[in-house]
Amino acid sequence: EVQLVESGGGLVQPGGSLRLSCAASGFTFSSYDMHWVRQATGKGLEWVSAIGTAGDTYYPGSVKGRFTISRENAKNSLYLQMNSLRAGDTAVYYCARDLTDWGQGTLVTVSS
Amino acid sequence: QSVLTQPPSASGTPGQRVTISCSGSSSNIGSNYVYWYQQLPGTAPKLLIYRNNQRPSGVPDRFSGSKSGTSASLAISGLRSEDEADYYCAAWDDSLSAYVVFGGGTKLTVL
């Protein structure tokens, strides 16, 4: 069974940093593209980043230069380093395998 | 404002057939697969349809997807009360501004 468990969310001040983690199990982690998708309360889904099996990374303009996605295949783990956080980054952050299987999410709140 | 356009709401009565549309452009729906997700309140999105019209195992055949040109649709037949949820479409985008784009979501109400 595919399992994705996010962690690392919490309250951070504007301008601060946070690192999210996603622990994967139940599949060969290194063989899949991985994504981060976020959802602000009461809003729709917003794609945040992706990393391919070769380590190639992709970001939308809204987070490019501030967020960094990475993976550690030996630990079956996905990460999202978030810097220069803004109030608009407040959301539940989901990790997803190939956009097919999703974790339960971790809440990030950016507020002073 | 989402790159893919969905109606904000849809409704139907039990047993009815409901369709939800998703409109995009040549850089996303027009040239890539469409995915559909169901999100029940307080839960993570669940994949309903992938590659335009394929159902993952466990998804009832009441759910079906189609694509034509730069638009796609999700159809739900034999509507049930447990189908009341938010539905999102998604597609890869070949433009430089994004890699994956989502629709704004459609709130389905079962009357």
How would you sum up this structure, described in words?
The complex is a heterodimer of chains A (112) and B (111). Chain A has no helices and 11 strands. Chain A has 112 residues and is mainly β. In chain A, the strands form 2 sheets. In chain A, strands 2, 4, 5, 6, 9, 10 and 11 form a 7-stranded mixed β-sheet that branches. In chain A, strands 1-3-8-7 form a 4-stranded antiparallel β-sheet, with no helix packed on it. Chain B is mainly beta. Helices cover 0% and strands 43% of the residues of chain B. Chain B has no helices and 9 strands. Chain B has strands at 9-12, 18-23, 34-39, 46-49, 63-68, 71-76, 85-92, 100-102, 106-110. In chain B, the strands form 2 sheets. In chain B, strands 1, 3, 4, 7, 8 and 9 form a 6-stranded mixed β-sheet that branches. The model of chain B has no long low-confidence stretch (mean pLDDT 95). Chains A and B meet through strand 5 and strand 10 of A and strand 8 of B.
Give the SSE layout.
The complex is a heterodimer of chains A (112) and B (111).
Chain A: E1 3-7, E2 10-12, E3 18-25, E4 34-39, E5 45-51, E6 57-58, E7 67-72, E8 77-82, E9 91-97, E10 101-102, E11 106-110
Parallel strand pairs in A: 2-11
Antiparallel strand pairs in A: 1-3, 3-8, 4-5, 4-9, 5-6, 7-8, 9-10, 9-11
Chain B: E1 9-12, E2 18-23, E3 34-39, E4 46-49, E5 63-68, E6 71-76, E7 85-92, E8 100-102, E9 106-110
Parallel strand pairs in B: 1-9
Antiparallel strand pairs in B: 2-6, 3-4, 3-7, 5-6, 7-8, 7-9
**What class would the helix/strand composition of chain A place it in?**
mainly beta
SSE string of chain B: EEEEEEEEE
Query: Largest sheet of chain B, described in full?
Result: 6 strands, mixed
Distance between the termini of chain B: 28 Å
Estimate percent helicity of chain B. Answer: under 10%
Q: What gross morphology of chain A would you assign?
A: globular
- What's the β-strand tally of chain A? 11
Which protein chains make the most extensive interface, counting residues with beta carbons within 8 Å of the other chain's beta carbons? A-B, 19 and 21 residues
* Mean of pLDDT of chain B: 95
**What is the SS-derived class of chain B?**
mainly beta
Given the structure, what is the number of helices of chain B?
0
Rg of chain A: 13 Å
Mean pLDDT of chain A: 97
- Count of runs of 4 or more consecutive helical residues of chain A: 0
Secondary-structure element pattern of chain A, one letter each: EEEEEEEEEEE
Percent of residues in β-strands of chain A: over 45%
